[in-house]
Amino acid sequence: VPPHQFTYEATGLDKQRRYEFWVTASTNIGEGETSKIISSAPNTRVPAKIASFDDKFTATYKEDVKLPCLAVGIPAPEVTWKVRDAKLQPSDRLRQLPEGSLFIKEVDRADAGEYSCYVENSFGHDTVTHQLIVQAPPHSPQVTFTSTTTNSLTMKLRPHQNDKSPIHGYTVHYKPEFGEWATVQISNSVQKYTLENLLCGSRYQIYVTAYNGIGTGDRSDILNTRTKGSKPIIPEAAKFLEVATNSITLHLSAWSDGGCPMLYFVVEYKKKSHADWVQVSNNVKPDGANFVVLDLDPATWYQLRVTAHNNAGFAVAEYEFATLTVTG
Asked: Residue 118 belongs to what domain range?
């Protein structure tokens, strides 16, 4: 009998005689000891029995599994499966095969547990219980934020409490509000991790997955947070503007950056009586120098519009001023 065969049917026996049976196992070294000898005689009335033993089965996530239940007996026994003490409810994934085995399609974590096969005929009954273990990717890890700066976010990472197998590492997924997703992989030994070089004063979405030898597990909830910092703060006119006869000087250092470095300014002006704005520059650099708007008419009312940009957003300031007369 080959080693993968766990049952054997002796046929052509004399119904009037009693037979003895025993089993030995052989390896390359030799034949082992005999099993206990049992005796039996052919009979037309055979109590229901299961020709297999309680066993433990280990399956990999998403593979198909067949749990055996080879029933013997005359008359043929009725086979009933119980899943965690509840009678089997057949479905597309879970069904009893014609020979009595239980078929599970693409096992999931929830399929792990005890499966009992019960057989019965008019002369007896028998039962066998199998334990199914499912090796699966990790559950979603636990993620909590601990601190935030203008360009970093620090989080604590913990495996899910139901993960029995060790994880191999984590993958952090993050994106700014108006950007693309990026990822970074970190070791399974890391319990606290800091995402650095982030945009100041910006909203971020973050989630984390864990992975093991089977694959990548479920993602954590998507967390929404933002780095510290705000859009630029508009200064008072007296600190920002210096008016002359034909020009106005803008003291750019009067702007507060809100904690996020300034990127650039857009400067526009128009005569108060006009409708259209004149753009002087759309890319004034915040290098600490003043910016001068030239070629203005003396003794004339103007409106000035300055838009300051940083990574947290932008702020628009509008001012009214009158240039000096020729005599000052």
From this structure: 45-135
For residues 71 and 99, give the distance between their C-alpha atoms in angstroms, rounded to a whole number: 8
Shared-domain flag, residues 311 and 241: yes
In a domain, residue 232? The reply is no
Number of domains forming the structure of the chain: 3
- 200 in a structural domain: yes
Whether the Cβ atoms of residue 324 and residue 298 lie closer than 8 Å to each other: yes
Overall pTM > 0.85 = no
* CATH number of the domain that residue 91 is part of: 2.60.40.10
The rounded distance, in Å, linking the Cα atoms of 246 and 290 is 16
Q: Which segments within 61-141 are labelled E, that is strand?
A: 65-67, 71-74, 78-83, 86-87, 94-96, 102-104, 113-121, 124-135
Closest CA to 241 of 233, 250, 232, 229: 250
Does position 151 have pLDDT exceeding 80, yes or no? yes
Band (pLDDT 50/70/90 cuts) for residue 65 is: very high
Q: Of 81 and 3, which is predicted with more confidence?
A: 81
The structure tokens listed for 201 are 């004063």
